[in-house]
Specification:
This protein has 10 helices and 13 strands.
């Protein structure tokens, strides 16, 4: 559904994108993670046609974004990290405006607003001005603007930043539902446990490019596990490596009885710190 190839974008001496390449299939959720400044937001802006790359190509559903931006945008739903809503008018009026921009009219528009409001738990605030909503309600309203026209590609940039648990749960459920219906999703986040809940594949960005790509199991398979063994006298032994369990067995067989054992399997946080940290230093 989404094919981005060798995207490059410079702002003066700054390389925002430096050969950024990413494919996303229909029905796939890709968790795009990396440091601030890794190129994630610039990538989203290129895909949506908001900015033009210096080099490279992007197609959405086979449509070249640079050559046919209006046609490509009709297949894209984008929720940026910064709020893009009009605070003085109601949620319904905001959604009506965005829906019309997507080409929805009358009954189709009304049905789309009702569906997005139910999915994102906004039905009781539809007629309130956006400016009086809580932060979580604004996050859900922002996401609703991207879901309205049932796009083939969803780009969600930090959709739960600062969100409450209710908002986070509603957003994740809506993303899972849309992916199950066939939408391709690029989900940028610093809350890595969300990617487990979404059963997402992972793309790690650093220095304006994707430096690791794959499913969670394959990316974590090369990272070491670790174990910490504590003893009654307050001392402890830390074990790490590809097979800390074997080392742990040796310690238990040859040493005094421990008072505590803490076994840590590699997580997405470890992957992020290992790969994105290394890429950030390049």
């Amino acid at each position: 559904m989404l094919a981005a190839r060798d995207l490059t974008k410079h702002y003066g001496a700054v390389r925002a994108l430096d050969g950024f390449t990413l494919d996303v299939a229909a029905g796939e959720v890709v968790g795009l993670i990396g440091h601030n400044g890794a190129g994630k937001t610039t990538f989203a802006e290129v895909v949506t046609g908001l900015i033009r790359p210096d080099r490279g190509s992007v197609t959405v559903g086979g449509i070249d974004v640079t050559r046919r931006p209006r046609v490509a945008r009709a297949q894209i739903g984008y929720a940026p990290q910064e709020f893009g809503l009009y605070p003085a008018v109601t949620v319904r009026q905001n959604l009506t405006l965005f829906g019309r921009l997507y080409g929805l009219r009358r009954r189709a528009l009304a049905a789309a607003i009702d569906e997005a409001a139910i999915d994102l738990m906004l039905d009781d605030v539809l007629d309130r001005p956006v400016g009086v909503l809580s932060g979580g309600q604004k996050r859900r309203a922002q996401a609703a603007t991207a879901l309205l026209h049932r796009p083939a590609l969803l780009l969600l940039d930090e959709p739960t930043a600062g969100a409450d648990p209710v908002t986070r749960s509603a957003l994740l459920a809506a993303v899972r539902t849309r992916a199950a219906a066939g939408a391709a999703v690029v989900y940028t986040t610093h809350y890595l446990p969300e990617l487990d809940e979404l059963d997402a594949t992972i793309a790690v960005a650093a220095g304006g490019r994707v430096i690791a790509r794959g499913d969670r199991a394959s990316l974590l398979s090369g990272l070491p596990s670790r174990a910490t063994v504590g003893y009654p006298d307050g001392t402890s032994t830390r074990l790490s490596g590809a097979d800390p369990i074997a080392a742990l067995v040796d310690v238990l067989m040859s040493g005094p009885a421990p008072s505590a054992i803490d076994l840590h399997r590699p997580s997405l946080d470890d992957l992020y710190l290992t790969l994105a940290g290394a890429g950030h230093d390049r």
